[in-house]
Amino acid sequence: MRTDVLLLNDQFANTGGTGQYILHFAEWFTDLGYRITLGYGEKPSPEFSAPTIYEFESPVLAAVDGPPSPFDLGKLATLAKSASPRLIFIHDVFQGEAIASVRKTLPGVPMVWFAHDPFFQQATPDSCSGHPPFDAQAAPESAARREHGSLFAEQAARHDAIVVDRPERVAVLTGDLGVSPHHVHVLPGRFSASAPPRRTSRPGTVLFAGPILEERGVAELIEAMGRIHRIENHWLMIAGKAPRRDYLDRCRALAERQEGLHEGLNIGFWIDPTPDEMAALYDEAVLLALPNLRPEPFPVEAQVGMEHGLPIVAFDVGDVDLVVREKETGLLASPGDLRSLAGKLQWALNHTEEIRRMGRSAHVLAAFEFHARDHVAALNRLFEDLLAPNDGIGPAARGGMNSASAE
User: How far apart are CA 25 and CA 21, in angstroms?
Assistant: First the structure.
């Protein structure tokens, strides 16, 4: 069967924002009558410099038989040919050589890039002060920044359209990187609100959800929980995928030390929870902690937590302030400041009524301001325009976006 949309992404996890978006995307566009094929990969171990490709088909997301294998362009080309899509949707960062391979395999197929990934961050002024490993290059005229900008522009030129989820990104693309304004589209919202949460919350339970990685600030969160005083039986549940075993072991050891030093502190790990298990963990928590050290362009995990009626405590980096509004839907700590993070967590655990009110406000915000219908409608309009009978020529056939826009 011919695929309407082939979605390619660099990674997938049931617990992270990327996985949540992919699952929603499959549901949204299947309901609209599209035939969807999803292809995505992840880095199963540090020695792989590129992702592994899996193939999934909507509405039943089931992996292709056989164990994961190291990514290769031939496998990606085979997936692209077998899918025979009318449109390609690149979500999150994908290596330039992979995008070039898909373009070569399917030269006349329109390609859309959802640019909200770390590669995009490195071409923008976002920074997480105090954590150089996760900072974008600070000097706008530095060689590294110019190289990122050049790579970004080269990658952008292979696409027929670029979509972003914040208006401020448009100026970076069109002004700093020379992308034609006609090729940039802003998508509102992301998620449809779920049913009212089944609150089974356990008092004092803080949830971390997402990949257990250094840039997600898991170790910093564990240390901050250890600085909380005069609260009995407070819990931290860390739930998600653990791509780096060394970092997971480090976090487990740190958690054991903190539990030994602080009576009443309990820290648990739930690795690779199923979607149902993850939903139950959201409903058992009283708040969601997302102490990202690297600025996230759009914190999708926060939106998922808000759908479950959870307020958010986070470092004030990246675009987290889109969803976390101080004392309204959560609390923002100074970037990288453990004392500030511990203070926000302690305040939250001491003010249960205020936290419940913030959780209700978070749920309302997710339901109305970030409703999926506007996001889906805007993306569907773009897809329809690109799939129109008189608009099937990709940038490879007409010389790329930038050369086309210059005519």
Answer: 6
pLDDT, tens digit, 9 for 90 and up, residues 43-56 = 444 443 444 555 55
Residues 258 and 336 grouped into a single domain: yes
| Mean pLDDT, residues 112-125 | 62
State how many domains the chain has. Answer: 2
- Locate 300 and state its tokens: 């999708």
Asked if residue 40 lies in contact with residue 11, where contact means CB atoms within 8 angstroms, the answer is: yes
Q: Which domain, by its residues, includes 210?
A: 205-368
> Residue 267's beta-bridge partner residues?
236
Q: What is the pTM of this model?
A: 0.66
Long-range contacts of 149-156 (CB under 8 A, 24+ apart): 149/123, 149/176, 149/177, 151/96, 151/119, 152/119, 152/120, 152/123, 152/177, 153/177, 153/178, 153/179, 153/402, 154/96, 155/96, 155/99, 155/113, 155/119, 156/113, 156/115, 156/183, 156/401, 156/402
Is 210 within 8 Å of 301 (Cβ atoms)?
A: yes
Are both 60 and 184 inside the same structural domain? yes
CATH number at 102 reads: 3.40.50.2000
Q: Do 38 and 81 lie in a common domain?
A: yes
Q: Are strands 265-271 and 54-57 parallel, antiparallel or unpaired?
A: unpaired
- Check whether residue 49 and residue 86 sit in a common domain: yes
pLDDT of residue 364 exceeding 70, the answer is yes
Asked if residue 197 belongs to a domain, the reply is: no
Q: What CA–CA distance (Å, rounded) separates 92 from 103?
A: 17
- Pairing state between β 54-57 and 36-40: antiparallel
Sheet architecture: strand order including 287-290: 265-271, 234-240, 205-209, 287-290, 312-315, 330-333
**Which residue do the tokens 């899509």 mark?**
85
The strand pairing partners of 235, in sequence order, are 205, 266
CB atoms within 10 A of CB 337: 17
> Does 196 fall in a domain?
no
Chain segment 236-262, per-residue pLDDT in tens: 999 998 988 999 999 999 999 999 988
Which tens digits make up the pLDDT trace of 158-197? Answer: 889 998 877 777 877 787 677 888 889 988 876 654 555 5
SS3 state of residue 241? coil
- Smallest CA-to-CA distance from 151 within 108, 99, 107 is with 99
Q: Which amino acid is at 259?
A: E
